[in-house]
Request: fold
Amino acid sequence: MSTTLERPPSRAGTESATLAGTGTLVRFMLRRDRIRFPAWAVGLPLLMAYFAVALESLAGTPEDLQGLTSFTSSPAGALFGGPGFGFDQLTLERFLVGQYGLYILVGAGLMGLLTVVRHTRAEEHTGRAELVRANVVGRHAQLTAALVLTTLMAVLATVLIALVMTSRGYDAGGSLLFGASAGAVVVAFGAIGAVTAQLSEYPRAAAGFAGALLGTAFVLRGLGDMAAVQGSGPSWLSWLSPIGWSQQTAPYTHDDWWPLALCLVFSAAVTAAGYALSARRDFGAGLIPPRPGSPRAAAWLSGPLALSFRLQRAGLIGWSLALLVGGVAYGSFTQPLLEGFQDAPEDLLAVMGGSENMLAGYLGLMGFFMALVVTIFVILAVHGLRGEETEGRAEPVLATAVGRSAWIGSYLLVSAIGAPWLLLVAGLGMGLGAAVSTGDSGLVADLVAGHLAHTPAVWLVLAIAALLYAAVPRALPAAWAVLGYGLIAGMFAPMLNLPDEVIRISPFGHIGDYPRDDISITAVLILTLLAAAGAAAAIARFRRRDLVTTA
Amino acid sequence: MSTAIDIRQIVKTFGHVTALDGLDLTVQTGQVHGFLGPNGAGKSTTIRILLGLLRADSGTARLLGRDPWADAVALHRRLAYVPGDVELWPNLTGGEAIDLFSRLRGGVAPARRDELCERFDLDPSKKGRTYSKGNRQKVALIAALASDVELLVLDEPTAGLDPLMEAVFQDCIREVKTAGRTVLLSSHILAQVEALADQISIIRQGRIVETGSLAQLRHLTRTSVEVMTDRSTTVLADLPGVHNLRSTNGYTQFEVDGEHLATVVRRLGELGVHGLTAHPPTLEQLLLRHYGDQLGHDDAKAVTR
Ligand SMILES: Nc1ncnc2c1ncn2[C@@H]1O[C@H](COP(=O)(O)OP(=O)(O)OP(=O)(O)O)[C@@H](O)[C@H]1O
Ligand SMILES: [Mg+2]
Reply:
């Protein structure tokens, strides 16, 4: 007894105490994620393999490849691909990492941030972590274990991507570098998740904030890469983004490893900030203290529709702001884009269809892209609806005079109105940015129309998600596949000359990307009808099933 | 007397788990009906079927004379429900939640709501996420008690309340009873059921195993008796209905089944009694008999399989 009292614990002793139990927790997390872990860490390499095989079969000859560069070397191509290193002497592998690699990197970022939030804030929020923490588990063990798990996923993804690429006969060094670039993004956004998890008590807010930073990283490098391709403008923006660092490694072209060092330093600093914040807050609490609110409900808060609006209001405000800012940022790039064309050689411009068409193409693509982003909002909204049920808040509401149809119907209605609203905001933002930068105020109407036209496609995805939720609540995540397919079909199919039918399975392949294409009124009507039918089926199904309750 | 709740032969399964296995339950209008049973017996499942949140596989249920699944909305205007685990919206205050529930149900009584907030000592201006478990429970209780409905369905409504609040709750339920309203009260707090319930039903493994007033249930179980006698009491051991007889130096303890009590008392008279205490069974003993049986039952099943 006395000996332990005489010797104050050494500094090393306290440090290891705060980490006690980390190993056990990592094993426990691996067991909990026995499906999720390989799904992500193997899924990304498999996606890369799919891209490789698809590209090889489509562009077998060097001439085919050269044909692809007209889009990819354009500013819009840079925005949605990357700086395009070595595209002047194009090879399959350069094209793969230069154009598709970006989406692997975005997936890697999502994997990192979702994994960390899932095992830290989400655990704390449900109260499971409290049980864990009451055992011999140090204060920092949970966060450390989550970061270890994320790093393991990053390493596995790195190795598998490298193996997949090498096995297709690409240079081993470049393959490993690209794998490591993806791994670095996993680690960087895992670190960002470790910080955002400290800020709010809500796992969804933590993931949402980290996701917004991922979106910002995407936009920053997009603007920077666009400037780089044009040879004018703020190309340094790419260097503010962890995704940008990973792209600057230029696998198979320059094979630079040093940008990844930047990423590691960044990750270490951000992780340290996460630990520091974690030490400053109470268990279960966020850093933003709760404020008291109104002791009475406002008069309008009186029915299921008002409740649904109240529940989605904060999200709608946040999304509106983000889309407005993003829209203005992308829109204000219209003028530098046009100037870029003026510098381009005459014959190149002719090949691209003239500067008029290039502008319409860029604006049309932006509308399509924003439609995908708003689709994220509607799928997340249905996830929120499911949360109301699984977290036990639907039960007391459905025990009042609110019927099943009114409950699900009013929630879906708010999301459905939210979709065109957000498209309007994004279109308006882009239109204003474009109009101010070019001085052509006519662009506002074009962009608003082009964005709004996608509404029925977003509605259809909303209806599909609602139907999945109503019929098989656990299968709701499958709705993301529709979005993923829309992305691949819309972004890559045109440049790969994929058959029309392939594009047309996607809800986004029908209406047309105005002002590049005309808006198909028939498609608008049919998609709207399909969405309405889907929503009606979802409501009918939800009326007939048991509520998901906890025992 | 009319019936507020009438359940006949309800069966409900979740995959391979049979939660309710031919359950019968009748609750008379104007009574407080205690609903007791071990964990996982099926109390919450029964209540959710009565609320139309779950659909029974077979059997019939009538609530206030109507079908709880088909007429859910119309019925819900006439009842209020407090779940066992109250979850609130994190960014709505307790007061907003109370108002919202009252409005969604149809009736609003602001004065009563404020009075209840006071009695339950609830600060309605806090956000949902900052309430403790007991305070979340209070929010749901106030929303239910403030409404002017015929039937209260309460699933372990005071699981998180402190003893002072428990007393307030019991007062409120007595007022509800005086007003002629009906209460279905699922609970693990025996003192609460003993104090409030007119009728009690005990559920085990998805079936009602006992139902009746507390007095009737007591009669079905054993009374413990302690006596001081001049003569030996060994003769008692052979009487029907006598259990666990222990005797030392003229002091004897034993238990006797309710129906044989009269015979035993008659025989005791011949033994020179000069001291006697008899305890009716407590609700706890009554329940432990049923809860305990469960284990024996399971073992028996396991062996015969
Ligand atoms: N949604 C569900 N899915 C699967 N099984 C369930 C579900 N709900 C209840 N059960 C099972 O049904 C049985 C009865 O559960 P129920 O919640 O009705 O018990 P209870 O009497 O309310 O218990 P407690 O006193 O612990 O609240 C249990 O075996 C439980 O595991
Ligand atoms: Mg229960």
